[in-house]
Design a protein that fits this description.
Layout: H1 17-33, H2 40-47, H3 51-57, H4 61-85, H5 90-107, H6 112-120, H7 125-137, H8 140-152, H9 161-171, H10 186-202, H11 230-250, H12 253-260, H13 264-271, H14 274-291, H15 303-318, H16 321-332, H17 338-364, H18 369-380, H19 385-389, H20 395-411
Helix pairs in contact: 1-2, 1-4, 4-5, 4-8, 5-8, 5-9, 5-10, 6-7, 6-16, 8-9, 10-20, 11-12, 11-14, 11-16, 13-14, 14-16, 14-17, 15-20, 16-17, 17-18
């Protein structure tokens, strides 16, 4: 296999050194702190320039933010285009594309717009939607490459952007990097990329078996919801409304306590501080959501129909408004509290991953059935697109999404959008 890093992109028109340094500084700050917590003053100090210099190039913080992300995106686009121009054999190109996406997500900030969109979604929905749409547009070179691979394999249908987005979602394993999980080490990424390419290209029924990937059991699964005194139950419920609508930073403990009719002494005695209350709220919501899951039985002879029904139920549950709001809150806090974000990730998905993993193992004998099941749920949730955009498939499109997801998961690219 040819490593993606061995393919060099064309040299782009150079950005003036001062502006390039400013964009690097701004991107690092936005990714580390989030959009709201970064000020023009702080970026100017870190970059060693005056505010006037920044405003000479960018009219406001949003303009600087967009430019910083666009600079990062251009590097990824150049790499993907260069990889396609290298004319590798289709199997090698798909492997290398997956590795390129994963490397860019880990080291180049490819997922940064989605992380930031999740944090902004409840308060700046139009801006968050713009970030998500721009992210989708950046995958166009991947779509073109996949279409070329499909043509070489005799697939004549047009390849929609959703195929490229699904491939990218599989390459980064959905929300894991956004929700506090450590990135895979470089020495493991080649094997992971090859597995992603095999799943996307051939489907779970035809892809070759391999030894089990290093995919640990979930850190957390849902237990019984904790029993709380009525006044604490009321406090948790009201705090949930504020944290999910306003975010952690903007939510006011004073307002929450007043609405719940709970004094500060009681609040601090039970939760110690604002972060403690936020932690309790998100864990409570994740547990409730998991306990409300009702996966249909994976039985019957019609494998595509059975799996489509399962994926449709998973999509409806995991992209419901409360789930999206919960994911956004966990993602926006993942830099501060990665353990909490991982709890939310594992807890809400396990009711769906567990039965699917057993079904895959029984039907196919794959040793890495848990990893495959996780990837199936990534497809069902549309990767991170529903979280970033604020909604899952429309009700009238849910069945079509479920059928397409089942076909892609079972039989790969050739069948993903077949009529």
């Amino acid at each position: 296999m040819i490593e993606a890093s061995a393919v060099q992109p064309d040299t782009q028109t150079p950005v003036p050194p001062r502006v390039a340094h400013l964009l690097d500084t701004a991107r690092t700050a936005f990714v580390a702190e989030g959009y709201d917590r970064v000020s023009i003053d702080a970026i100017a100090r870190e970059a060693g320039v005056s505010k006037e210099t920044i405003y000479r190039h960018f009219v406001d913080k949003q303009a600087l933010f967009r430019a910083a992300l666009e600079d990062m995106a251009n590097r990824f686009v150049a790499r993907a285009q260069a990889l396609h121009r290298a004319a590798l054999p289709p199997g090698q190109e798909l492997d290398a594309l997956a590795r390129t996406i994963l490397d860019a997500a880990v080291g180049g900030g490819l997922l940064s717009p989605l992380w930031l969109a999740a944090g902004l979604g409840s308060r700046m929905p139009d801006f968050a939607a713009e970030l998500q749409q721009a992210q989708a547009a950046r995958m166009e070179p991947v779509r073109e490459a996949i279409e070329g691979i499909a043509r070489a394999q005799g697939v004549l249908r047009d390849i929609p952007i959703d195929d490229a987005l699904d491939f990218g979602s599989l390459a980064v394993e959905g929300s894991t990097l956004l929700m506090g999980f450590d990135p895979p080490p470089p020495e493991r990424r080649t094997a992971l990329a090859a597995r992603v390419a095999a799943l996307f290209g051939q489907g779970v029924l035809a892809m070759p078996a391999t030894p089990a990937l290093l995919d640990p059991e979930p850190e957390h699964t849902a237990g019984p919801a904790p029993t709380r005194a009525p006044h604490l139950r009321r406090l948790i419920d009201i705090a949930a409304q504020h944290f999910l609508s306003d975010g952690f930073e903007a939510a006011s403990l004073g307002v929450i306590g007043a609405e719940a009719k709970v004094g500060r002494g009681t609040l601090y005695r039970h939760f110690a501080h604002k972060a403690g209350l936020f932690d309790a709220v998100l864990r409570d919501l994740a547990t409730q959501l998991a306990n409300q899951a009702t996966p249909p039985a994976l039985v019957g002879d019609g494998i595509p129909e059975t799996l489509a029904h399962y994926f449709g139920a998973a999509t409806a549950h995991l992209t419901a408004p409360v789930s999206i709001a919960l994911h956004r809150a966990a993602i926006s806090a993942s830099r501060r509290d990665p353990a909490l974000a991982r709890f939310v990730h594992d807890t809400v998905r396990e009711p769906w991953i567990g039965p699917l993993s057993v079904w895959i193992a029984q039907r196919t004998g794959h040793a890495d059935s848990r990893w495959l099941a996780r990837q199936g749920i990534v497809l069902a949730m549309q990767g991170n697109r529903a979280i970033a955009s604020g909604h899952g498939p429309a009700p009238q499109a849910l069945d079509r999404h479920a059928v397409r997801t089942a076909r892609l998961f079972l039989n790969g690219l050739a069948d993903g959008n077949a009529a």
